[in-house]
Amino acid sequence: xxxxxxxxxxxxxxxxxxxxxxxxxxxxxxxxxxxxxxxxxxxxxxxxxxxxxxxxxxxxxxxxxxxxxxxxxxxxxxxxxxxxxxxxxxxxxxxxxxxxxxxxxxxxxxxxxxxxxxxxxxxxxxxxxxxxxxxxxxxxxxxxxxxxxxxxxxxxxxxxxxxxxxxxxxxxxxxxxxxxxxxxxxxxxxxxxxxxxxxxxxxxxxxxxxxxxxxxxxxxxxxxxxxxxxxxxxxxxxxxxxxxxxxxxxxxxxxxxxxxxxxxxxxxxxxxxxxxxxxxxxxxxxxxxxxxxxxxxxxxxxxxxxxxxxxxxxxxxxxxxxxxxxxxxxxxxxxxxxxxxxxxxxxxxxxxxxxxxxxxxxxxxxxxxxxxxxxxxxxxxxxxxxxxxxxxxxxxxxxxxxxxxxxxxxxxxxxxxxxxxxxxxxxxxxxxxxxxxxxxxxxxxxxxxxxxxxxxxxxxxxxxxxxxxxxxxxxxxxxxxxxxxxxxxxxxxxxxxxxxxxxxxxxxxxxxxxxxxxxxxxxxxxxxxxxxxxxxxxxxxxxxxxxxxxxxxxxxxxxxxxxxxxxxxxxxxxxxxxxxxxxxxxxxxxxxxxxxxxxxxxxxxxxxxxxx
Length: 612
Ligand code: ZN
Ligand code: ZN
Known about the structure:
The chain is mostly helical.
């Protein structure tokens, strides 16, 4: 059932440089109380292209009924994208519900097939592909993947309740009454989960226990605290609290059931090659297979290591004088990186350092004429809200698809109260060089700029089914673009640190593919990350934990980056002396958060050739 896959609390996620995106990827980024939706978009305005105007108008109407049907069957998903008509509903995840969803997907695929895609304009063509992919993905999830049988963490109601509690889209009393009604099915929901699970994956069982234990306070405590702030009559409040108590007990009973579960033959957490390729096809929507992207990542790692060794040799005398250079090039690189990492801000200056950097980035982007930045959509830097506390050092929150005028926030976690050693290690990771790269990635011209541009593409479909590889790929691409254009004088120091940062994306792909399809051991995984990607032991351990409870999502960064670079090369060739970087960037972004392969089709199409 796709609905369950979309909702996942992830307490273990200390995922830095985290963009909280659409429901598909959101599951990976959630923490117990981290509840921010995103992705932007607005209603189709019904405008139509020069050709096939009739088809485009009909297609736009169809999109609206398609979404309405989807929300009706998936109230939790609807809530998370900012569609609040079904906030009071919680469905029990039984066979009947799964069949209903599969039937819905089949019906939509049939409806789609009645449109002639060739007659649609470019934006609608892409919407068509996204809708088709989503419906095929639902069929595959319900018929082949069947995570509902082996992933206990796929059953989790808490994130939607936390969303209803923490997002201020309606008056508090109204939200709490929906919360109350929605709780009615919690006991039945978890009873059904117990019925569906068979020999679940051990790592995902542990994750489910961890998430429910950490998240139950939303229902057990936070709900009651919020009730006190309303003028809901006392008798009604009493009834509401009683249901919250019953609900919390049902959640605790589920964790106890999981702890006591006799499971002598658990399913492996490794997805296996066949399911992996399918999942990659649906989630990443690349023109390449997972195997091809993996091969490209291996090549990329080699060439980065070569470039890093060259830079390190050059920098060695500056930082180590006449001390003998290590013979092993990976050791050499590691030592130079270690030395450069000691340049960092003081713990109390982390947020102000970020605030000071953003105008500098904006100025650089406009001086170099890289991409338009809309001054009317300011980015607000804020201290991480309480309910996100302790999660990510920095993250972007953008308004949801149904709330495109909402603010974009750059959430910065405070290091207050951290033990000195932990703060030092964190600040070395986000040192003077990588802190700048972080801000480029998250904000300017990375995620924030991309999302503002996506917002101008009038497609709700693209913001709801936004493509993670395109979104993460753009952020990674923008880092390199800034350096290539002379950011921070493209000093050898920042270039070396960028390569280290970039290796994280490249090795995410190598790790994910190797672990899920080639049986890579934990020991080899840690060796890859610490020795070849220069990560600290703690970061590598965290990544191992992440790869053992997720799959494919880690491929987004490198896949998207590679496809954008390849597209830019092809576009350069096509445009000849008319090529301009800014024009490429803005055209690319104008399609919204669509898979790069479809943007590629549109940008390289013959009729998009400039007239000479
Ligand atoms: Zn230090
Ligand atoms: Zn990102």
